[in-house]
């Protein structure tokens, strides 16, 4: 089979551009409209995307003045979307720092069953003091600590998902025996962060467990990904950086004894599409014109861990920013933003403009051909197994991608032309169903 | 408006009778079949029920040998059912002992939005060591401690649900102002069990918050219900007990300054329906014949906190059982079972038969007329505001109720004949939408 692109639709209320909500087409209540999301899901299915994805954090992300804040909880929303779609994968973000394994494992198993094997989990450790303070902590746990907890969380979750063998249910009505207790394997886990005794109260799901996705790019993040992740979302500004990241991650994955084909790397791209290049650039400019810069300054100060009022709009970033190692929040995003500003000698105002579209993800404005070219280049030159598509405005930006870029990708043989029979999310990504850790493989 | 019955459909896999799964009609995989639950929800909507309800506990409830174990997580399943139904309320059980307020408040707010105001929360404190051990605890927290935590949990959850005023979203595109930060009220809660700083990341939902339902009947349980509950599920074996419970709960509710009309009492009933009385009794007998008694013995020993092997099938319960005050698990259920056994001088075998149908809820076998009579009597004589309908076998038992008992109740003017326009769950139960604690009522 030819190698195909994997496409994930990263959905965000009225779009990824921070000013998208101000455009005439945008609904200020989109973030709480099931209909809005059903519409987006159907567009993505028309484009034969592998999956949908929703970001998340257990805190209010921004001031209300700034932009749409608050959203439907992703697992809940994706469950509703499961019933409105047939083929597309459903990837929910959930935090290992602010959940307990038993509850979260159940929810993903339930979604996987309800969706016929289409659930995915974007595993995040959640940066920021705001989230910590919603869960009884004074301070954000240290970055290394968060990843240590994440590792143990995954070990426990995998034990829970494997606590039922696939054929534990017998259903012998005559004998009065519903299931086989010998096929239940309670985790009996006692660790540093968690103690979990009993088996899950949900049978093993169609995929065994949700597709495991990861989205942090720090050293700890990449270590974690190499051990557990089957797909990785990442923000990369240049093809050189993306190739280095790709090669690094595949090598790390091989180094821990896994098949590097079993981890798919998906950089984000914000495609601003126009019939002509100048139309695309005008669209980008229109969005930039709607940015309220004072919010952008506050966001940058928070990311860079600077006191309020440190940054000036028409000057460059201060020269004496701390190294990544001193950052306890989102490490890799910090470095990406600082490097981008330095490389292109951007003022704060320009930097805000560049980040406005994709918060550090690559923004690419052009014709459908140009967008398809960029995607093909990255895909064929060792920078990506697919893309996280982040339309600047929704729904129109997703419509544009599906109507104009997808046909080109199909013509070039880079993308499936139809879904074919129903299958699991993991199969869409070309990955095998995981064996149960309690079951010996049978050799012929 | 005439006083109408409130009907709640308590759904449980193949039915409430523990042997229901062994009948020819039953699907051993019903517990993980969305189609099964969609079918049940549609039958209940045909019967113009107020709501559906799913029980829950974060542990495997029984051995697999015994009966269908494990289930879809209720909030997930009800979200899927929200998209398959239009009018019926969706009540999910969730534990205050093994959840954090921020996560749970978000999920209920999200379901309430997605369902157009049809979410309800059956608030439980979760008895049993098994659950505790899935969340890092060695022992079950003491009964009083669980209810103390539940009270604080509710206070925090209510603060979170009120952390957005209803009109916090402005959507002023021209000015670039999406929302009004002055209408956000972070809880800043620091208590015994929880510290929660920030506002919820979901706007206030159609109902303000889910309908609050409670299902424990101990002293602490009733105290809790009188403060928070808008509907109460309860297991009552006789009309005398039910009337006493009803009067007690209404009085307690009035005593804390609430309108006693704003707490609806719904005893459970397991209706075994036949065209003739003898047909109904034969159906009951058929179910009893399918009971595997050794499982029943084990369950009773666990409820009564007796060592394994203490009970003998053809003898009565031991005389020296401890008082309710010594029980840390499900207190009111304990007392109900012991009193039932003593009152009717039941052997363990007979007791298991009596509990097989409804685990302590009233089982009533008869013709549709007889079932309707029993319901009418309890409803008009101060024992109930409605009923928790617990069909012994599903779907057939719910079909029988809706096809044969519901028309009689409608003819007698006790039940709505149609839903009318879409409305919230709270309105179905005749309750007012709660005001936001941060908003002063406006007097004309
Ligand atoms: C496409 C993409 C989506 C992400 N979504 C989330 C998210 O929803 N929630 C979250 O807490 N982190 C999310 N992250 C990860 C944060 O960027 C991450 O917490 C941060 O980079 C810290 O990880 P690191 O320090 O390992 O880089 C996402 C990252 C990427 C690339
Ligand atoms: C109809 C009904 C349904 C219930 N469902 C649950 C449930 O799903 N999960 C749970 O932990 N307790 C549930 N309970 C409550 C338990 O019976 C309760 O935990 C037990 O009675 C302890 O409360 P108490 O000690 O205040 O009586 C339910 C009770 C009733 C009457």
From TrEMBL, chains A, B:
Keyword Flavoprotein recorded: yes
Ranges of residues in domain Luciferase-like: 26-383
Keyword tags: Flavoprotein, FMN, Monooxygenase, Oxidoreductase
Positions annotated to bind FMN: 56, 93, 143, 147, 217-218
SUPFAM superfamilies: Bacterial luciferase-like
Molecular function, one GO term: monooxygenase activity
Family note: Belongs to the NtaA/SnaA/DszA monooxygenase family.
UniProt cross-references to NCBIfam families, sorted A to Z: FMN_nitrolo
Protein name in the entry: Monooxygenase
Annotated source species: Streptomyces griseorubiginosus
